[in-house]
Amino acid sequence: MTDQGTFIPRRVLITGVAGAIGQVVSKHLAKRGHTIRGFDRHPVTNPTDHHVGNLRDRGARHAAVAGMETVIHLAAYRNDADFMQVLLEPNVIGLYEICEAAQLAGVQRLILASTMQVINGFAERDEPLAIADGARPTNHYALTKVWAEITGDMYARVHGLSVINVRIGWFPRDRIIAQRIVNSERGRDVYFSQAD
Predict the structure, then answer these.
(1) Are 166 and 112 in contact (CB under 8 A)?
(2) CA gap 151, 95 in Å, rounded
(3) CA 77 to chain centre
(4) Among the options 77, 141, 155, 191, which is catalytic?
(5) Cis amide leading into 47 (omega within 30)
(6) More confident residue, 188 or 50
(7) Domain boundaries, the chain
(8) Are the C-beta atoms of 142 and 150 separated by less than 8 Å?
(9) Which of 5, 12, 105, 123 has its CA 20 to 30 A from that of 66?
(10) Which CATH superfamily, name and number, covers 11-190?
(11) CA distance 70 to 59
């Protein structure tokens, strides 16, 4: 979209496109008219322009980013796990590698997946959250997402990229569980559809 509201299709790379969120986002953006390229360790049929590779592979990473205007970085190990053995490579090093490749390729916008767990997770609170509260990661996974947000901020300030950190609250993978959450008191308060 432009400031006047005119739709402008973009060339978008989605890392982690084989995951549940990646599949929904790629289909939605393609339906809206964007040109989608996927990058993942696992092959997929959607989108058809798909690069199979690891974020640590310089050649694969740079080939995937080449010619893109926007990178949506969803690739990460999403569960709390051993920091050094499981989370460090995909969530910290992989994030750095894709940000650097995007900056070198002249990508205009980075959209980085974060999590609500960086600000206290799912714990009940008596008082509302405030921006001034800052990060309060609840586990090692959330700690990697604090790193992602800070890294995104650095690429915006230092390299002039437009960076958006999206703190994902939850993503319904199963319709029955999703319906239970939506019907719960808490679910009604925070529900966003997949199109949001």
Answers:
(1) yes
(2) 8
(3) 11
(4) 141
(5) yes
(6) 50
(7) 11-190
(8) no
(9) 5
(10) NAD(P)-binding Rossmann-like Domain (3.40.50.720)
(11) 19
Length of the chain: 196
Residue 148 burial class via C-beta count within 10 angstroms: exposed 0-12, middle 13-18, buried 19 and up: buried
Between helix 58-65 and helix 94-105 the angle, nearest 10°, is 50
How far is the C-alpha of 22 from the C-alpha of 38, rounded, in Å?
9
Q: How far is CA 149 from CA 92, 111, 144, 145, in A?
A: 11, 10, 9, 6
The string of pLDDT tens digits covering residues 46-97 is 877 999 999 999 999 999 999 999 999 999 987 778 888 888 888 999 999 9
More confident residue, 192 or 120: 120
φ/ψ of residue 14, rounded to 5:
-120, 115
Is 141 noted as a catalytic residue in this protein?
yes
Q: Tell how far CA 133 is from the center of its chain.
A: 23
Residue 98 · residue 75 · CB < 8 Å? yes
